[in-house]
Amino acid sequence: MTEPEWLAATDPVLIYSHVHSTAPDRKLRLFAAGCCRLFWTTLPLTAARMAIESNEAFADGLITDEQRGQTQVQVGILADMFSTDTRQRRPRDRVQRQHQYAARLSLVQLAMGPARLIRTELVSQLSTDPLLMEIGPALLRCIFGNPFRPVVFDPSWLTETAVTLATGIYADRAFDRLPILADALEEAGCDHPDVLTHCRQPGPHARGCWVVDGVLA
Fold first, then answer.
1. Which end of the chain is less congested by CB atoms within 10 angstroms, N or C?
2. What distance in Å separates the CA atoms of residue 171 and residue 153, rounded to the nearest whole number?
3. Burial (CB count <10 Å: 0-12, 13-18, 19+), residue 138
């Protein structure tokens, strides 16, 4: 893959295939969690939402593998239940909805699994779920930036204001504040177009965003 292809690609599998083998486990987990959060409103079950949150916490080293184990088991049971239910005789539209729901629960379960499985198995989700096929490329570029031209954050940009803003954005998932972060970075002397443009574009954004990570080192 070339840099122009990376910037313009609309196939999430193509983009993911370029980074998945070398990406840090944390980035992979946060990308998987970001994919899951695209379905947040259609995953009302507490266990599924808790699983996504615990996966993010695990990615950042805030909880142990054992601590997230309970939600992982619960999501596995839910995924199996819905998968089984779709094989029963039901109206077609209901079967389709349940099949999609089961697939998304399986995505949550995958995101909770070993990083080696995320590297290899997430491709199937990216190539089959319509929403991931549509939004996946932008989400990948949000988390991984431009691997052909990585940005080195000048320490002079990392003012107390910028770091405080980035910390709040990350903790609260308040990505609507990214344009404010862009202003703070610009005031500190940052004139890098990739940094400022990324902060000011509508998204999608997720934890693991390359600009927020760069500010927080």
1. C
2. 21
3. middle
Return the sign of the alpha-carbon dihedral for residues 101, 106, 112, 117.
negative
Q: How does DSSP assign 4-69, residue by residue?
A: HHHHH---HHHHHHHHTTTS-HHHHHHHHHHHHHTTGGG---HHHHHHHHHHHHHHTTSS-HHHHH
Q: 139-186, pLDDT tens digit by residue?
A: 999 999 999 999 999 999 999 999 999 999 999 999 999 999 999 999
Section 182-207 average pLDDT? 96
Residue 149, amino acid: R
What is the 3-state composition of the chain as percent helix, strand, coil, each rounded to the nearest 5? 70, 0, 30
* Residues in Cβ contact with 204 at an 8 Å cutoff, skipping those fewer than 6 apart: 34, 38, 135, 138, 139, 142
Give the pLDDT confidence of 12-21 residue by residue, as tens digits. 999 999 999 9
Give the total residue count for the chain. 217
Q: Which of 62, 68, 75 is CA-nearest to residue 26?
A: 62
